[in-house]
User: What shape does this take?
Amino acid sequence: MPDSTKILLSEADIPQAWYNIQPDLPGPLPPVIHPGTLQPIGPDDLAPLFPMALIAQEVSQERWIEIPEPVRDIYRLWRPTPLFRARRLERYLDTPAHLYYKYEGVSPAGSHKPNTAVAQAFYNKEEGVKALTTETGAGQWGSSLAMACNFFGLGCEVFMVKVSYEQKPYRRSMMQTWGATVYPSPSTQTQAGRRVLAEHPDSPGSLGIAISEAVEAAATSGGVKKYSLGSVLNHVLLHQTVIGQEVMKQMELAGEYPDILIGCVGGGSNFGGFTLPFVREKLVNGRPTRIIAVEPTAAPSLTKGKYVYDFGDTGKMTPLIKMYTLGSSFIPAPIHAGGLRYHGMAPIVCYLYDLGVIEAVAVPQNPVFEAAVTFARCEGIMPAPEPSHAIRVAIDEALKCKETGEKKVIVFHVCGHGHFDMAAYDAYFAGKLPDYEYPAEEVEKALADLPAVG
Ligand SMILES: *Cc1c(COP(=O)(O)O)cnc(C)c1O
Assistant: This one.
């Protein structure tokens, strides 16, 4: 298919197994630690929150984990997703580079997130759980989990950051259409929410508060409800590897192998899913690909953070994870790429970055939106603000090739569409988008507050 624009696979090509990178890493991942005892946590510590199958996947050393047929059957609704050759963008940039992009915006929820939501709902259903609780910011994750729970007949309770609940009503409507109950957080449903409301009745909420509410709702339900997380954890990256496995096959059909892979990182799940099969080729078979993670300058965990143990949430309720962090009390500026406003990063991504297998770069939001508009005008698709970070760096790399005359193969990940983000485009066109510089002082303050782990 060397001349195609869309490189398509058939349903039979949907991967049969998820790829687990853990056995292919040069050493074990650092253990997750209990904040009270400072000892590695065991399955029992996690059992009130997650089903056993997912707890097992979190630490599994099996290289391939079979995808259950009911999960693959739901994947068929939108998988395999297309890989495009960005021919119009190449012509516009006048670059000798070959540009390709994988597009996950074709899922019903509009991003990569259903790949793990469906898997998580399946395992919870299998173990007799009745409902899942979760938090959501702008609503990408909440809507994906709502859809997945709907397919498996599970209840779904979403604690949605109040300011988004009020300002971004359409993702909330999607969740309700798929049958979820959506609470503006802080809510009166939980002690955590009531405590915040007592002190700040007008609190706009935050992701940290919403996580505390969702965790409490699951932990106090006597096993009826469990909690679900849409990024960061090993099992989430595992489920997302369907993306990279498809890209591998699609690039074979295109008759090329990537010189450069580029994805955006918030918690690291779309990037991990897209790149880990290629990381394996690099680690195990020595195939040299540059693999670039792109983050916002407003939340530069990899490029400016410290590789230490920290809490996963602002409320300091989670176990301690070794990751590149800006400090769990650091609250990133309100950039429009809401999915990238996280203080930490997936442990697998951090491990690979520390090892030097992947690179990272941070970009401010105005150049990101400039790239988004260029991309939309060339390729038609409106990208979400998050993947537009990857598009920015892909364009920059293509322009470098123009200077040097190199014919590099650049593959980037467009992990979601921007149909619910058009207000951000409006702000860009009106010249009202601030470029937040690296907030050195606040990060320093938050890092001074790190938990003491030996
Ligand atoms: C949630 C989300 C992200 C950030 O999460 P990752 O785990 O880093 O992938 C990025 N892009 C989109 C479209 C999202 O919905």
